[in-house]
Design goal:
Helix content is 27%, strand content 23%. It is of the alpha+beta class.
């Protein structure tokens, strides 16, 4: 059985980007809420840059692809059962988040690359946002997209859209099977949700995008080509629900236009009335917010929660510097070849994937009201102190890279101490 939004409502993600002049400073602000099954654990993992042998193969979630000669260092927020990622960043300041989308093109039931695999592959192989568009579309053409996107016997599948940003620009990349369109964003603020949103401003596209639409009777040559209108379902519960959140996200960005900071982005991601901080059977299981300064002498800073519900989580900063060690407290247990994801038929059992930070947060989620308020107050102070430290770094520059080697793990430890 295939599960879609109508069965497990709400299924949703929201990704945002703000560029000058929408931002308060000369920086790009990126953010995403990853909305997944409520009991799914999301881990924060770091992988160093690496060189690879000629003809080396790479095992993704379901299929094996050709490896490239060199991959960049990445930090990822990902469902702990799969290879790819919901969102992340690389050492060059490229950030990517993906969204589930549905449309007229039928979703393949064959296992291929997940959209989350494409997020990680784009980050590992691209030094700019536009290069990531190249990487993802080339892999999409060669290997296709498909496979169960949920750790369950029931199938949950979709096509993907991506919001990709670097220090200079952002791209929205939307797919329908192997077909795709992309829009460049040079200024202002944009968001994506679980719907196609590229209309007539198409800066790059699949070479057969229009001829395929014409062959299906969706478009007549000579008429305006509106990608979202042509390739989307016209009226479904999925599109209606996504459209509501898309409008709410747009409105929140517009409300703060000209003054958007990373703290603004965190507050948007915490917004429950809009549905952006999702609750229910599908909920916000992890969040990310990034600062990408236009000044390349300043470091990019990426904040991750690694825990559900940003309202009761701490955004913890990470900066790419040499000699970063594995992030032990936010990495889930691994099961190697015995993992139920690797065996066929897949997902016959579900092992414990909780990492240490996740366990600590879950133990504290049902506190009495007064204790909960005190804990949240401490969490906000901890987060504010982290942001103040980052603000100072972005004012003066990163004088000593060694000083931030343990920045993210230290913030995780501080959060866990508050839970204790």
């Amino acid at each position: 059985m295939a599960l879609h939004c109508g069965v497990l409502a709400p299924c949703s993600c929201d990704t945002f980007v703000a560029l000058p002049p929408a931002t308060a400073k000369k920086e790009v602000i990126f953010g995403k809420n990853s909305d997944r099954p409520h009991d799914e654990v999301q881990e924060i993992v770091y992988f160093r840059e690496a060189s690879h042998k000629e003809n080396e193969k790479l095992e993704c979630t379901y299929i094996t692809v050709e490896q490239v000669s060199h991959t960049y260092a990445v930090i990822l927020s990902r469902p702990a059962w799969l290879w790819g990622a919901e969102m992340g960043a690389n050492e060059h300041g490229v950030c990517i988040g993906n969204e589930a989308v549905w449309g007229k093109v039928e979703i393949s039931q064959e296992e291929a690359l997940l959209g989350m695999d494409l997020v990680r592959l784009g980050l590992e192989r691209a030094e700019t946002a536009e290069k990531a568009v190249d990487v993802i579309t080339e892999l999409l053409e060669k290997y296709g997209q498909g496979g169960n996107c949920m750790e369950d016997e029931a199938s949950f599948d979709y096509h993907n859209s991506f919001l990709i940003a670097d220090r200079k620009e952002a791209w929205i990349l939307e797919t329908a099977g192997k077909y795709w369109s992309a829009e460049k964003i040079k200024e202002g603020a944009r968001n994506i949700s679980n719907q196609l949103c590229i209309t007539t401003k198409i800066d790059r596209e699949h070479p057969e995008l229009r001829t395929y639409a014409k062959s299906q009777g969706w478009w007549t040559e000579g008429r305006e080509f509106n990608f979202a209108s042509i390739y989307s379902y016209q009226n479904t519960a999925r599109i209606s629900a996504a459209g509501g959140r898309y409008r709410e996200g747009h409105n929140l960005l517009q409300k703060h236009k000209g003054s958007i900071t990373v703290e603004t982005m965190m507050e948007i991601l915490r917004d429950k009335p809009s549905g952006i901080n999702a609750q229910g059977s599908f909920m916000t299981t992890a969040s990310m917010a990034s600062i990408l300064p236009l000044d390349e002498s300043l470091p990019c800073v990426h904040f991750f929660t690694g825990t559900p519900d940003p309202e009761r989580s701490v955004f913890k900063p990470f900066i790419f510097v040499p000699n970063i060690l594995p992030l032990l407290k936010t990495v889930s247990p691994t099961y190697g070849p015995d993992d139920p994801v690797k065996k066929k038929p897949r997902f016959q059992t579900k092992p414990d994937r909780q990492h240490k930070l996740y366990k600590m947060q879950q133990k504290n989620q049902d506190l009495p009201k007064e204790k909960n308020l005190k804990l949240l107050e401490k969490m906000r102070k901890l987060e504010k102190d982290n942001i103040t430290e980052i603000d100072e770094i972005l004012k003066t520059g990163l004088q000593d890279p060694l000083a931030v080697v343990h920045l993210f793990p230290a913030c995780v430890e501080a959060e866990m101490k508050e839970y204790e």
